[in-house]
Design brief:
2 domains, 3-stranded antiparallel sheet, 8-stranded mixed sheet
């Protein structure tokens, strides 16, 4: 088994979930890049060890801080075995990871397009079956007030179709002309696995069962220069395992009758660090440069459609919270209504003010795409297009809420 030889092991950004395993609480560690194609399940007591693997401590310091900060002793050789196991799956930030990561990126670019993550599982892979399913969804919601083809912005959920199809259909029925009229689509989606305050681009094209949506390479290059090449592509492989763009682009492609359109797919990371910042997110240097370049592109390309892909609340035991009762459901709905009202009015800073006031207590996963898209597009007003409270566990004690807005 390989062993990390760096003096201070550092854990990479991973997808870490609290689960129950073999009758006890545990932690599931998964690599969003899927470099080894495997995962690790650890007893929950290992949480402090993972927390301290930040690249600032050697083995001796790890053992010392586990004892002093967490009153946790470690069996002889256990820490070394854990680090070796993490290293074997490329879960540590080191030269071994960097090498295999670059190899994986090279393989990614050799593919004809980004492979569809959910085709054949979350939705039909056959285009005719997909068309029939989406047409049925659209028929179920009945007539909708279609907004003008000149509209510039859509807020769509990215939850699975089984739970969210009614809201998807309401959004995309209202935006049908906008989708068909667009000559360029810029889509910002939640990066569930990347770091804070990150803009993650890709030069690879997305595909749907209807065909390929070609990524506009020149515009990607412009945005990469604005935020910095290294930052823009450091997490590019997150696109492989992220569903937030795929599920929305599939609806876009359907509404265009399978006709392709140049696209700029962008993943955006969490804005939570700005809850305690003295300035709003848009004043962060990286985000300010990113937004300035987006505004320049929108000015140059007037028939551009911007899409923000995001859901609303994630509350309950499925998200490490308390069970949701009827009183909590009402409170979630009330807060959602406040935020959706501000978003529909185009008030990005008002929306951010609510998130900051409540410390994002409901885990709104669309904060970054909603906020940044409004800041890029400028003054707009939108029409609400659906709202749903979706179950997130078998006991009915966890929920995800979703809503749509179409800006005409």
């Amino acid at each position: 088994m390989p062993v990390d030889t760096s003096p201070a092991p550092k854990l990479r950004p991973l997808n870490i979930q609290a689960i129950h395993h073999q009758g006890g609480p545990a932690l599931l560690l998964q690599d969003p890049f899927q470099l080894a194609g495997q995962y690790i399940i650890l007893p929950q007591v290992y949480g402090p060890v993972l927390y301290l693997l930040d690249g600032t401590r050697d083995l001796a310091a790890l053992k010392r801080d586990l004892a002093t900060q967490f009153r946790m002793g470690v069996e002889e050789g256990a820490l070394e075995e854990l680090i070796a196991a993490l290293d074997e799956l490329y879960f540590l930030e080191n030269e071994r990871f960097q090498r295999v990561h670059e190899e994986a990126r090279a393989q990614y670019y050799q593919l004809p397009h980004r492979p569809m993550l959910l085709a054949g599982q979350g939705y039909p892979a056959d285009p005719q079956e997909l068309k029939a399913q989406f047409d049925a969804y659209l028929a179920e919601v009945g007539p909708a007030a279609r907004l003008p083809a000149t509209g510039k912005l859509i807020f769509s959920p990215h939850i699975d179709y089984a739970r969210g199809h009614e809201v998807y259909a309401q959004v995309w029925k209202a935006a049908a002309s906008m989708a068909r009229n667009a000559e360029l689509v810029i889509i910002l989606g939640t990066d569930h696995y990347g770091g804070f305050n990150q803009v993650t681009l890709t030069r690879q094209s997305y595909a749907t069962p209807y065909g390929i949506l070609p990524t506009d390479q020149l515009l990607v290059d412009r945005l990469a220069r604005a935020v910095g090449e290294e930052q823009a592509f450091a997490g590019e492989l997150y696109h492989l395992g992220e569903h937030s763009l795929e599920l929305v682009l599939t609806w876009l492609h359907h509404m265009r009758g399978g006709e392709p359109v140049p696209t700029v797919p962008i993943l955006v990371g969490s804005l939570l660090p700005f809850l305690d910042a003295p300035h709003v997110p848009a004043e962060d240097p990286t985000l300010a440069h990113f937004l300035a370049e987006l505004r320049a592109i929108l000015q140059e390309r007037p028939n551009t459609l911007v899409i923000a892909s995001g859901d609303l609340a994630h509350v309950g035991p499925a998200f490490d919270g308390d069970p949701v009762d009827e009183r909590k459901r009402a409170a979630i709905r009330q807060l959602d209504e406040e935020m959706l009202g501000l978003l529909a009015a185009g008030d990005a800073e008002g929306f951010w003010g609510v998130i900051k006031r409540v410390r994002d207590e409901n885990n709104v996963c669309g904060v970054a795409p909603f906020y940044l898209s409004l800041k890029a597009v400028g003054p707009v007003e939108g029409a609400r297009a659906g709202y749903a409270v979706c179950p997130a566990d078998d006991d009915g004690t966890s929920v995800v809420t979703i809503g749509g807005i179409v800006f005409g």
